[in-house]
Amino acid sequence: MGRALSGEAATQRLRDGGYRVTPQRRRVLEAVAALGHATPEQIHAEIRPDADLATIYRTLTLLEQVGLVQHTHLGHGSPTWSVLEDVVHLHLVCQQCQAVLEVPAGIAADLQSQLERQHGFLLDLGHLSLSGRCRQCVANEHETP
């Protein structure tokens, strides 16, 4: 999809916000980048024992406040976190295989403008996830007699 901030830019963003760059913050950000879309529990499993789960939740909240990560609700349960990229995208979640596809947010531009025009509702495309079935699952369904 888009580009994420480099390690140096991320460090500067934290410092510009008045925050220290601690080893835990760095490890959480690295884990989010490595895992793609990950729950706090998955991030915890990736970096354990460097930080406990409560620290991970606090760190994710802080990293989101300074614009380094974002959360998305891809289904039931914990939100997933990903590195904030310079290109806003939507998440397509396959209900069958749980694959997560990222597509450019522009695909929902008509919906976004219609909601604003008709209802005064400002849609946050960066947090939008849509559920359905992916191309492969649909194809598999049609191949099965």
Care to describe what's here?
With 145 residues, this protein is of the alpha+beta class. It folds into two domains: 7-83, Arc Repressor Mutant, subunit A (Orthogonal Bundle); 89-143, 2-Layer Sandwich (Dna Ligase, domain 1). Helices cover 44% and strands 16% of the residues. The protein is built from six helices and five strands, in the order ααααββββαβα. It has helices at 7-16, 23-35, 40-47, 53-65, 109-119, 135-143, and strands at residues 69-72, 80-83, 89-94, 100-104, 129-132. The protein has a three-stranded mixed beta sheet with strand order 4-3-5, with no helix packed on it. Helix 2 crosses helix 3 (40-47), helix 2 crosses helix 4 (53-65) and helix 3 crosses helix 4 (53-65). It is globular, with a radius of gyration of 17 Å. The protein starts with 6 loop residues before the first helix and ends with a helix.
Strand-helix topology:
Elements: H1 7-16, H2 23-35, H3 40-47, H4 53-65, E1 69-72, E2 80-83, E3 89-94, E4 100-104, H5 109-119, E5 129-132, H6 135-143
Parallel strand pairs: 3-5
Antiparallel strand pairs: 1-2, 3-4
Helix pairs in contact: 2-3, 2-4, 3-4
- The radius of gyration computed from the alpha-carbon positions, rounded to a whole number of angstroms, is 17 Å
CATH topology of the largest domain: Arc Repressor Mutant, subunit A
Identify the CATH homologous superfamily of the largest domain: Winged helix-like DNA-binding domain superfamily/Winged helix DNA-binding domain
Strand percent estimate:
15-25%
CATH architecture of the largest domain: Orthogonal Bundle
H/E series: HHHHEEEEHEH
How many domains, as an integer?
2
